[in-house]
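Please produce the structure of this protein holding calcium ion.
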Amino acid sequence: TKDSGRNNYHFFNEKMHERVQDRLNILSYLYEGLSQRQFELFYQPKIDLESGRVIGAEALIRWHHPTRGLIAPAEFIGVAEQSGLIEEMGSWAMEEACRYCKQCLDLGLVDSGFTMAVNISPVQFARGSITKVVSDALKKSGLDADQLELELTESLLIDNSTSIKRALLQLRRMGVELAIDDFGTGYSNLGYLKAFEVSVLKIDRSFISRILEAEQSRILVEAIIQVASRLNIKVVAEGVENQKMAEALSMLGCDQAQGYYWSRPLNAMKFEKFMRNHQRD
Ligand code: C2E
Ligand code: CA
Ligand code: CA
Ligand code: CA
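Below is the modeled complex.
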């Protein structure tokens, strides 16, 4: 069924998170997992609401633990961030996403308007290597910078650190697109959107899931779309699960969307199959 996929993960015991020893256990498994290539990127298509075409994908990391099975990022990103391991994991994900996007281009599955979105942890900025990670991944893969989109947190943009500001501006100068993930959950200060030439706002699923029932959510989403359009910023709705939601968003003037309604995140093989079927429509 459509909804069973979410329960395919074999979660760590929730209590594990609170215990230091267990964090250390997860961490040592994580190190092992990285060196033994247990991580994989899944890709969720992004749809242009007007044309119905696939205009991009978001890369989402998955961990195939040899005995625990498929583990969702919510279970390990926090530990990876706290330990600093996110740097190595993030570099791997960046390289893999660029390589894969270039491969899809070469296979003719996507065109030069397609963008690959990669999630970036604020920790990757704090540690200062993000611009090099991005430029190395682009160079190695041969992918054009404008086909790469970085999904950033709102908190990153209001951070006053000059090194973060410098890195953001440098990424923009390289031609990489910047997207604000989970928009609406944080500070909602619009000034910085212009300052860093943000090109995409992703409205958080918590608002999208309520637009059919809650007037307030609908008003908020509509307001975000209107402001964004004046600032020439694209809006992506995340977590669209049915046709009614897609239609409502389209009516509100939302540009793009992603969600289970079109596709769950897919492994490379299934993503390619999805793209081939989609091209035929
Ligand atoms: P996110 O960036 O907000 O990603 C969207 C999450 O919503 C994904 O969960 C996706 O599978 C899920 N989703 C997509 N469509 C729907 C829908 O229609 N309904 C529902 N209920 N959910 C939907 P996922 O893959 O478990 O990722 C969770 C979070 O982990 C991500 O949230 C992101 O913050 C983080 N993450 C994932 N991959 C990476 C990565 O490579 N690096 C970093 N730093 N963080 C990552
Ligand atoms: Ca994201
Ligand atoms: Ca998001
Ligand atoms: Ca989220």
